[in-house]
Amino acid sequence: DALGDMDFKVTGTEAGVTALQMDIKILGVNRAIVETALAQAHEGRMFILGKMMEAISKPNESLSPYAPQMIRMQIHPDKIREVIGPGGKV
Fold this sequence. Notes:
The protein is about 35% helix and about 20% strand.
C-alpha cells in the first residue's frame, strides 16, 4: 500500500463486479484512470476465473467433513446481553 498513488481491489464473477475497494493517496482520480483500472481488473478477473475452471470445472459431489460450516440461529432480543455481555464487553 505504501507504493503508488492508488490501491484498487475488484472482485466478482463472470457476470460482473460484486465488490470493489479503492484507496487513493492523491487528490482525485479522473474518469479515464478509473475506466483503465476497471478494464485491467476485468481482464485479470477473467484470467483467474479461467484458471480456476481449468482446475475445478464443477463443485465436488460431496462436502468434506473438514469443510467450514455455518450455523444460523435466532437470539431473542431480550437474551442478546447474555451472549455478548452487558454493553458488548464479552
